[in-house]
Amino acid sequence: MRVRNAQAGFTLMEIIFVLAIISVLIAAILPPALERITEAKVEGSIGQARMILQICEIARTKALTTSVDAQGRYTHTYGSLDNWASTTVLQSKLTNNYHLPTKNALDTQILVKFDAARCYVAVDLPFLQSDYGGYSTETVGGKTRVIVTTRIKNSAYPSWVVNQKRILHDEETR
């Protein structure tokens, strides 16, 4: 009978050495991968905010009431949303044809507001960073809120021409 002294597996030292190498590789690769995932979620949330911004513009420019005075001039009354509110509030100002999400890819609530000039949609980031991507930002609860908005449209005419046209057409502005 023969006795075999051949090794039938890995030694404990070999297993520990391989696990140490794997843990070093994971420590080097995992943070950048997670950072890229977060960046993709932020960019997706900002893209979603831009789309909601277009719907917000519809709600902002929707006349709630219209009245005509004795001279035949029309006066429109528009809604406003002065404080940050959920998209459900914006949804209530629209018809049932629009279905707005309440949360974004970062799993934070989508907030909107608008005034007479333009709409604003907020994206709350899970970290603090000033001047994110050239957008307006504000700090809320120790984290950054990116404010996506439309630019005020400049007319091709000087402002006095626009005002003169409004006067000539008896147009009332907001």
Notable traits:
alpha+beta, transmembrane helix, single chain, rod-shaped, 174 residues, 5-stranded antiparallel sheet
**Mass-distribution shape:** rod-shaped
Mean pLDDT: 84
* Sheet with most strands: 5 strands, antiparallel
The largest beta-sheet arranges its strands as 3-4-5-7-6
Query: Tally the helices: what do you get?
Result: 3
Roughly what percent helix?
Answer: 25-40%
Radius of gyration: 29 Å
What is the chain-wise order of helices and strands? HEEEHEEEEH
What ranges have pLDDT less than 50 throughout 5 or more consecutive residues? none
**Percentage of residues in strands:** 15-25%
User: Kindly, what is the distance between the CA atoms of the first and last residues, rounded to a whole number of angstroms?
Assistant: 104 Å
Broad structural category: alpha+beta
**Number of E-type strands:** 7
Protein name: Pilus protein
Keywords: Membrane, Transmembrane, Transmembrane helix
Pfam family, one: N_methyl
Transmembrane segments: 12-34
